[in-house]
Structures are given as C-alpha cells and as structure tokens.
Write a structure and sequence with these properties.
Layout: E1 4-10, H1 30-42, H2 45-52, E2 72-78, E3 81-88, H3 92-103, E4 108-114
Antiparallel strand pairs: 1-3, 1-4, 2-3
Length: about 120
Amino acid sequence: MPTMIYLLRIDDFAAAHGVDPDLAFAGASPEALAAALTDALRTPALFEHWRGKQDEPDKVPATLGATDATARVRAAQHDLYVEVEVRTRLPHALLKQRLDWLIGPHWTLRDVRAG
C-alpha cells in the first residue's frame, strides 16, 4: 500500500481520551499524542495490549495488528483545536482503530491524500 497522508482535527483536546483507560492516551500535549500514535502505528504494543483484553485473544486476526515502521505523526495546537498529520502505509481502518483506542471519537478526518 502506498503512503497516505491523513489530516485530522481534534476540537476538544482535553476530552481526547479513549473509553478504556488501559489503552487511552494519558498525555497532556499534542506532541505527546503524536508520540503515542507514532508508537501505536510503528509497534504492536497497543494492539497486543488490546488483544490480551479480549475474551478469546487467540481468535483475533493477526492482520489487525499490522504495523508501519515508517509511520510519522505530527500534531500541533492551533488556536482552539489540534491538527494532526499522519503519514502511514497502514489502511484507514487500522489508523481509525488505533485512534479510537487512544482518543476515542474525539477526532475528525479532514483530508486524505497520497504521500
């Protein structure tokens, strides 16, 4: 899959935490979020933690844990919102999965383009 650039917006950064506190982003800055999301895309750690919490972890498809060692994330505060740029070869579904675990529904996809 080619590298894609996803532009996201978080309007209420203070509320940007996932539902499960064991998986949720616990940082306080856009830079900390960028680091957490980069790790979630580059390594299987967050996925493995989530998988271990499932009733039948051995039945979770391994493809859901795909990673992209070249993924890059930048996040910056703008007046009233945080803008996040994600560059990854992972499909949107896996990016959404990791974002949902980390920050829940507190993000909006603004643009997608080939990178």
